[in-house]
Amino acid sequence: MAQTHSTRESSGTGINLQVDPEQLQPLVKQVVAETIIQLETDRAKLNDKMAYSEPEAARLLGLQPHQLRDARLAGKIGCSQITGRRIRYTREDLLHYLAANRWEPKDG
Fold it and tell me: In terms of DSSP bridges, do strands 80-82 and 12-18 run parallel, antiparallel, or are they unpaired?
């Protein structure tokens, strides 16, 4: 069972938590398994698509939809226009955009 001990250090009050790793292991395994299942479920949903809407593509890139729209209008990312002038981004469009904007640290 987990034990807690309060200790007083020179910089203030702290808590020392001692946990037996063997007791924690089943919980860690359960959390990891659930996380993997959720990731695979999300990945399967995305991989069934040939193209993504602007909000979907922006989410995949970690952008707001207006930021992706601005990049598209500036010619920084490719896209396709489908029926009704709707904009769609392929996986290749997104990967090319990421590769073209790869950050490299400057030397000294």
Answer: unpaired
17: CB partners within 8 A, 6+ apart? 2, 3, 4
pTM tops 0.70: no
Q: Which residues pair with 81 in a beta bridge?
A: 87
Considering the domain architecture, whether residues 61 and 32 belong to the same structural domain is answered as no
Reported as a pLDDT band with limits 50, 70 and 90, residue 99 is very high
In 1-108, DSSP assigns E strands to: 3-9, 12-18, 80-82, 86-88
**What does the pLDDT average to over 8-27?**
79
Asked, for residue 31, whether it belongs to a domain, the answer is yes
**pLDDT per position as a tens digit, 57-78:** 999 999 999 999 999 999 999 9
Residue 41 structural domain: 14-46
- The three-point CA angle 40-30-18 to 5° equals 140
Domain match, 42 and 54 both: no
Domain shared by 67 and 90, yes or no: yes
